[in-house]
Amino acid sequence: MHDYPPPGALPVATVSDAMERFGVADGIGPLWPGATFSGPAFTVWTRPGDNKGLHAAFETIRRGEILVVNGGGDTTRALIGELVVQKAKALEIGGIVLDGAARDLAELPELGIPVFARAVTPAGPWKTGPYRTGVTVAVGGVPVSPGDWVLGDHDGVAVVPRADIGEVIDTAHRLIAGEAERRAANQRLVPRD
C-alpha cells in the first residue's frame, strides 16, 4: 500500500512533468475554484449517460478513494448531481472524476467533495446499466487502474500508475527544488537600457 500525498501537496503540472508530460486527463477539470483531491482510484466504466454503476460503486468504495468514471465523454446527461455527491460525502470518498457531465453546480461546492468533469448539463442520467467496477478504464485519454494515484487541482487531473508512485513523487520533489532555483535566478535579472 502506498502513502498517497494529501490533496494540494504536489501540483498536477509538476507531477505530469515528472512523468515526461504523460498522464494528464484531457478536457477534464474542476467544477469550482479551489477543488483539489489526491488518492487511490476506484474505477467505474459505464454506458454513456447512465449512472447505475456509480450507485453500485458506493456499495464497496472505501474512505479516501477517488471515484473515477469512464462515461464515454458524453456531455448530454449528467452522471452525478447533488444527491449522488451527498452520498459520496457520507462515505467520505476523496473526490469524483467524470469523463462525462455533472449537474447541480450551485449546490456541489457546498458539499465539499471535489468534482472534476468534462461538462455541466441539467439533463439527468439513465439508470439501467450496463457497467463495470474495479476494471481499468480510460478517462480523458489516460488509462486508470484501481489503486493508481489520481490527483486534481486547478490545472486538471493527473494519473500515476501504481507501480510508479514512489519514483514520480521523488522526481516531482526534485523538479520543485529546481523551479525554486530558477525563480530565484529570475528575480535577480536586471533590465537592460
UniProtKB/TrEMBL annotation:
Keywords: Magnesium, Metal-binding, Methyltransferase, Transferase. The keyword Secreted does not apply. Its EC number is 4.1.1.112, 4.1.3.17. Catalyzes the aldol cleavage of 4-hydroxy-4-methyl-2-oxoglutarate (HMG) into 2 molecules of pyruvate. Also contains a secondary oxaloacetate (OAA) decarboxylase activity due to the common pyruvate enolate transition state formed following C-C bond cleavage in the retro-aldol and decarboxylation reactions. Substrate binds at G81, E82, L83, V84, R103. Mg(2+) binds at D104. It comes from the Bacteria. The keyword Transferase applies. Its cofactor is Mg(2+); a divalent metal cation. Belongs to the class II aldolase/RraA-like family. It holds the Pfam family RraA-like. GO terms for biological process: methylation. This is Putative 4-hydroxy-4-methyl-2-oxoglutarate aldolase. It comes from Streptomyces xiamenensis. SUPFAM superfamilies: RraA-like (SSF89562). It catalyses: 4-hydroxy-4-methyl-2-oxoglutarate = 2 pyruvate; oxaloacetate + H(+) = pyruvate + CO2. Homotrimer. It is an enzyme of class 4 (lyase).
